[in-house]
Design brief:
Layout lengths: L4 E8 L5 E11 L6 E11 L10 E11 L2 E9 L1
Parallel strand pairs: 3-5
Antiparallel strand pairs: 1-2, 1-4, 2-3, 4-5
GO molecular function, one term: structural constituent of ribosome
Keywords: Ribonucleoprotein, Ribosomal protein, RNA-binding, rRNA-binding
GO cellular component, one term: cytosolic small ribosomal subunit
C-alpha cells in the first residue's frame, strides 16, 4: 500500500526532532457549494532539527515513532 504524502506549513518546532505541521484541505460545502477550508495538525519527525516555523514541507506516513507521531518530513518547498 502506498504511503500518503501531505503538504503543509510548520507551525511549531519547539520539540526536539519533532515539528508540528498544519495541513489545510479545501472542499465544496455539500449544500451551499461554497469552498470551505479545514486544517489539521500533524506531528512529524525531523531528525536534524532543520525545519523552522513558517517552512512549507511535505510529510510522509511512516510506522509509529511515538504515541502521536507517525509522519516523517521528507522535503521542503520553496
Amino acid at each position: 500500500m502506498p504511503k500518503r504524502i501531505l503538504q503543509g506549513v510548520v507551525v511549531s518546532d519547539k520539540n526536539d526532532k519533532t515539528v508540528v505541521v498544519r495541513v489545510e484541505r479545501r472542499f465544496a460545502h455539500p449544500l451551499l457549494q461554497k469552498t470551505v477550508r479545514r486544517s489539521k495538525k500533524y506531528k512529524a519527525h525531523d531528525e536534524t532539527n532543520q525545519y523552522k516555523t513558517g517552512d512549507m514541507v511535505s510529510i510522509q506516513e511512516c510506522a509509529p515513532i511515538s504515541k502521536d507521531k507517525c509522519w516523517t518530513v521528507i522535503s521542503a518547498q520553496a
